Amino acid sequence: MVKIQSHSFPEELLLQPNEIKTDYFKSITIPHQRLKQALDTLLINILEPADTLVFLVFGVTGVGKTTLRLRLENLLNYEFLPSLRQNPGQIAVAGIEAIPTEQGKFSYKDYYTRALESLQEVLIEYKIDYEIPHGEVKDLGLLNRAYRQDSPALRRAMEKAFRYRQVKAFTVDEAQHLFMMAGGHQMLQQMNWIKSIANLTGTVHILFGTYELLNCPTLNGQIGRRSEDIHLLPYQADNPEDIAEFIRVIRTFQRHIPLVQEPKLEQHYEYLFSGSVGCVGLLKNWLTRSLRVAYSEEARTLNSKHLKLGAFSASRINKIKEEAQQGFKRFQEESSFFERQYSTEHGIKMPAKNSLLKKGRVGQRKPKRDDVGVNSDDD
Length: 379
Fold this sequence. Notes:
This is Conserved hypothetical ATP-binding protein. The protein is an alpha/beta fold. It has helices at 18-27, 33-47, 65-79, 81-86, 108-130, 142-146, 151-165, 184-201, 221-225, 240-255, 269-276, 280-296, 304-310, 314-346, and strands at residues 54-59, 93-97, 169-173, 204-209, 227-232, 357-359.
């Protein structure tokens, strides 16, 4: 009698086309320790806001910034669903992707227009997804009335939309593009501009980007008190706890790979760790690429050959490693600078810093171990 292997994915998925099976695997999100710590910090500050209105979330390519953003948006929509049902005009969270400057000049008009468009688009999707009854929304014409007007008019329309919609959080992806301009004075103006919008609207602004966000000046006291940095650090090869967490992530991924026989990826953990630079996002992309190779061969499981064929090029991995090393070094140096400055100004000794999170570029969050699970939300 043949023993049928039990899978963590629906058995009928094996009968589906390869494209559908691949999409299923891409939809899997692993709430690992790094992701959970950052997500908990953001949720607490959005649901119970204090003085922190601006968050800078940064890290190397593939570390999980997009997954964090999408997971945050899903959880906020779920958290505020009862309120959204009662008030069809309300929006829990909205967001845009920042566009690079043209010839070194940032377009505020384009930013305001995209922000207004995102508020409308999110509202439409929310009504469809959750069948919220359509009601009269007085400010739907804001964009049309202000679209051809100047930047101040667009900004007022945007601020009014934030307040009317009662937006709890506004996310900006690729946020380093907001600060791609010469001179510290101009970048300080940009930070003051973001802080002003967040302050006037009461909406928490979360900027997701690369280590270039470290260029953002926070020497200004008011900005420092109202901003918080979240560093999404890759798992470290010299940290036993990080290795254990990464192996748990590998185990969870392998249980959800839609193949007849569950692959034994744990035995390749050193290879997977090195080739993904300790980044869960890169690991998942790598496994997805390898899965496509396995499907092309009609393989029953995923093996080392598929992993090698699906691996990223050495030049790309080396570039990401260099970015991670330089970014982390800069983060540490800047943390030390602000700690010394704070200590000097206040005459106190600063506590040991944490590599993931710092308040106003000062302080710490005590790490803790979290369970690893699976959620089939956006990746």
